[in-house]
From TrEMBL:
InterPro entries: DUF7918. Residues 70-189 form the DUF7918 domain. Pfam families: DUF7918 (PF25534). Residues 230-271 are annotated as: Disordered. This is DUF7918 domain-containing protein. It comes from Hypsizygus marmoreus. PANTHER family: BETA-LACTAMASE-TYPE TRANSPEPTIDASE FOLD DOMAIN CONTAINING PROTEIN, TRANSCRIPTION ELONGATION FACTOR EAF N-TERMINAL DOMAIN-CONTAINING PROTEIN. Residues 242-252 have a biased composition (Basic and acidic residues).
């Protein structure tokens, strides 16, 4: 989101979360959007000033143009990471008084212009952040998620910087909800699922899946059997050998009663 020269965003796994339905207040001091949260995921709040790199620290050093906050400091050498978690509901009437904060489900980043005074080498005093209470079911908080702190881990030593506020520049509000809830409310459009191409075999099965299914199958079997019998008959005819009867050639022997060649039709007298 952009507000003047300042830009802010939230990342999960080093990936910037998409922002939806961005709105700026009438006075231009606050910008709001919706983001999809996922329970159990750590997140980082990032912000930058496009003109900050040109500005100089009183000591002559450049100020870091991009800032990030992914944890809550518990001491000068320890911290607890920020993460999304499921909202805990209960039917215990002892929690009826706990309706939850009006800002539950919001991450708010306030940008102030300040005057640096001094860098204090003494470790600052860290106030413990109370653990979130359960919410009674009757409050019907349609949130789904809330922010909580993870397990405490070690970190590099830090020191307090004394400053004096000058003015409030603006604020960024990230309204987080589960993806399914944002889609149900029409804030994030539903993803259109691609239709998978239908298998030809499945199409064939569907084409005969009706009240006359048995009759159609029986007719098809008869047709296939008839075609198979015809193929076998043709194959059998090609494999038969044709037998040809050959008559032996009879040669007429020359007669001793005649010295000459007899012609067809001559009469031989044997008396």
């Amino acid at each position: 989101m952009q507000l003047g020269s300042f830009k802010a965003w939230i990342t999960v796994d080093n990936i910037e979360l998409p922002e939806h339905s961005v709105q700026i207040s009438a006075d231009g001091k606050q910008v709001t959007c919706w983001i999809a949260s996922e329970a159990g995921k750590n997140f980082t709040v990032c912000w930058t000033d496009s003109f900050l790199s040109a500005r100089k620290h009183p000591a002559g050093r450049n100020i870091q143009p991009t800032c990030k906050r992914s944890s809550f400091k518990t001491s000068s050498t320890t911290e607890r990471p920020l993460l999304f978690s499921n909202l805990e509901l209960t039917d215990d009437d002892a929690y009826l008084h706990n309706t939850g904060s009006s800002e539950l489900g919001d991450i708010k980043l306030i940008i102030n212009e300040v005057k640096f005074l001094a860098r204090n080498r003494r470790a600052p005093r860290y106030k413990p952040l109370p653990e979130p209470d359960k919410i009674h079911e009757k409050t019907k908080k349609a949130m789904g998620h809330r922010v909580k702190l993870g397990i405490e881990v070690g970190c590099a030593p830090s020191y307090n910087v004394e400053s004096s506020p000058i003015r409030m520049i603006g604020s960024f509000v990230f309204k987080y909800r589960p993806l399914a809830q944002l889609q149900a409310n029409g804030i994030i459009p539903l993803e259109k699922k691609r239709k998978r191409a239908m298998d030809p075999v499945a199409v064939l099965d569907l084409s005969i899946d009706n009240d006359d299914n048995d009759t159609a199958e029986a007719d098809r079997i008869k047709k296939l059997e008839k075609e198979l019998a015809s193929l076998k008959q043709r194959q059998s005819q090609r494999s038969k050998k044709v037998k040809v009867e050959v008559k032996p050639e009879v040669k007429a022997e020359p007669s001793s009663l005649s010295s000459g060649r007899r012609q067809l039709g001559d009469i031989i007298d044997l008396t």
